[in-house]
Write a structure and sequence with these properties.
The structure is a homodimer of 404-residue chains. Chain A contains eleven helices and 18 strands. With 404 residues, chain A is α/β, with parallel strands linked by helices. In chain A, α1 crosses α3 and α2 packs antiparallel against α3. The mean pLDDT of chain A is 93. Chains A and B meet through α1, α2 and α3 of A and α1, α2 and α3 of B.
Chain lengths: 404, 404
């Protein structure tokens, strides 16, 4: 059975006219003799509206009821899509997570899909039906509605693709695919035709908003090809697949940048074993994510400088925690908000020597100072002044031949 | 176990502030050591908004998906009520119809509650919880969401009261109770303290919008006391109960009037057996409800005049059907839109001679001509010119001592 999973995001079903368009897209897949499973998000704006209501009811609104409340968003979208498919002559119906059921584990507001009962859906597919399944939700073993924390409806789509052994999962969204870099920051950005899971994971982690890292990781583990494409424009999107499916690698596939980072430097820290841990442990406990870290070797063996980056949103909390921690001795605390992280990503760099040098040289030619460096097998990130971000993006995009 | 069922209508939960108020009301019942079962409608406006969406998707929207769509309205309201009760310190949760389950029979959009599984709710009540149950809906034996055609959430509340053997069902709404007549038409209208099921049935059938006749009938058959009261003002409402619970009957309990009736007269109909049936059968087939009927005795045994009333909305359809029916011979078709039906209702009239005479005399004194008459055991209705409606109401209200 050739199954394809189609997932529609909130903007794709954001109005009645868009839902009509979406029904056409689904119908076209069905006509191509695929067995089609559809997953939908809530119409854009609906979820925010529901969250707002819950906050007005209570600043500490029940997690259980939050899930009951929010799950109505997808239910509405799915009934409208199914209703439209009926209208244009297709057999289709909404399937709510309790009707299938989709079983989750974990806490309310932050569950994970554990099991999907395939029986009813398989039967329905064999009858020629198109099931429209509510994304972002499931039920737990107490038969209460749960919502999926990270990944949302994307995670639902990937898990459906996994359980039904779909060859492909198409993520319909409001962008045409994944770009070499953010087109709003660099007009020369190009749509990527094909990208490996690993590169996409880095891109997503570094701020490409197309998909949540957790869903890409699930797809990678289950070898599900993902195509990200626009629901508004009928053009090929970006295929996310395993490395061995990709030929003609460029050295660098994409460039990410984030501007909501801040740099924290502790100057003159007493250098003793475990000092970094004693600084980072309370931050971790408070859900503050420390990103890049650099520690200078101390010349005299007694003092060191420690620099790290965090999200700017966490800056106040971070400084409070550090100042409150009397076990950390340091001479000065330096904070810098106007920094940006720029990252080049590509599996090609593994086999290509000198990529790091080319990156640094390119920035040096533009007189851009590098403040912190962090690397992985397929990624090099540097921290620079925020004011240089556009110049850096343009130079690197050109250097690594992404302009065309 | 002393159970009370509280039902909140759409206007009672029409805003976040109103839901907070409703949670207080529920909490107060709980504090009085009652086991409280709550049923809620959708927040006012929400259902209409959803219906509008379905119509924009298709002029012939799927009945199955319509029920899936509309059921979200009550789900939202129930989660917010439960969340608010949690906030103010009560153990409470939403119960969706599939979680209980509430089983319905009949067609989509027009189902009836057949069975309510009590086990989980009883256990939850015994744990001290307040279940907030979605009104207006259930699931059928195929496990699809259904909605209740007539009676809506009132019907859900009455059926819950029946299955859980509740002593009382309180219908919270936006009016203070049932009035002797519509206060918008007669400022002297008084709230009725207690009224029998039978009288309330007549009042409801004749246009009092407080409750649907079908729900009153269900309450009557199951001997469930209903109190209709305001969720905004803390005052006793109207008790609807069996006749034997009522002392000090007035002769007349209430006066109803409707203004959306039209009168149709067929003049010079060939008088033969079955003529009335041949006129009314096609109307009935087209769901046109014929209300009052009067047929003059023909003097010559050959011709008769037939007059009946229908809703004005059905007037065009009715005349088309009559003109299209070639088997009916008549000389003239007279239509009159500006008529109104005024009805006096009271179980007291059974034991009191001369009520009909007093009604006719009162209208005659006001020089109001009676066009059609229709009576039942506890009701007398007359058709009059619409322009006389206020005058007639005031005179009858006074005559039957309802002014005080």
């Amino acid at each position: 059975m050739k199954i394809v999973v189609l997932k529609f995001g909130g903007t794709s079903v954001g109005s009645i006219d868009k839902i009509k368009k979406v029904a056409q897209i689904i119908g076209n897949h069905k006509k191509k003799k695929f067995k089609v499973i559809v997953v939908s998000s809530a119409m854009s704006g609906v979820t925010n509206e529901l969250v707002k209501k819950s906050r007005e009811i209570s600043g500490n609104f029940s997690n259980e009821e939050y899930d009951v409340l929010l799950s109505t968003g997808e239910q509405i979208a799915c009934s409208l899509i199914a209703g439209r498919l009926n209208h244009i002559g297709f057999k289709s119906r909404s399937w709510l997570s309790w009707q299938i059921p989709i079983i989750t584990t974990g806490l309310h507001k932050n569950s994970r899909i554990n099991k999907i009962n395939k029986k009813k859906i398989i039967r329905y597919l064999n009858e020629g039906g198109i099931p429209i399944i509510t994304g972002f939700q499931g039920i737990n073993k107490e038969e209460r509605i749960t919502t999926i924390g990270r990944g949302g409806s994307d995670a639902s789509a990937i898990m459906l693709a996994k359980f039904f052994k779909a060859k492909k999962c198409i993520i319909y969204t409001d962008v045409e695919g994944v770009y070499t870099t953010d087109p709003r920051k660099l007009t020369k950005a190009k749509k990527i035709k094909v990208i490996s899971y690993e590169e996409m994971l880095e891109m997503a982690s570094l701020g490409a908003k197309v998909m949540q890292p957790v869903s890409i990781q699930d797809a990678r583990l289950n070898r599900i090809d993902i195509e990200v494409k626009s629901s508004f424009i009928n053009k090929p999107g970006t295929l996310i697949t395993k490395r061995s499916n990709i030929f003609n690698h460029k050295i660098i596939t994409g460039i990410s940048s984030t501007q909501n980072d801040s740099k924290v430097s502790l100057i003159g820290v007493r250098d003793k074993p475990g000092i970094a841990a004693s600084i980072f442990k309370p931050l971790s406990k408070n859900s503050i994510n420390v990103d890049m870290v650099v520690q200078n070797i101390s010349a005299n063996g007694k003092e060191t400088d420690l620099t790290f980056t965090i999200k700017t949103d966490d800056l106040n909390k971070t400084t409070k925690i550090i100042r409150a921690n009397k076990s950390i001795k340091f001479r000065k605390l330096l904070l810098k908000k106007d920094v940006a992280k720029i990252s080049i990503i590509g599996v090609g760099m593994v086999a290509t020597p000198g990529v790091t040098f080319r990156m640094f040289q390119t920035l040096a030619n533009e007189k851009i100072n590098i403040q912190v460096i962090s690397t992985s097998e397929i990624k090099i990130s540097v921290l620079i002044d925020k004011k240089n971000i556009k110049k850096a993006l343009a130079a690197l995009h050109k250097e690594f031949k992404l302009d065309n």
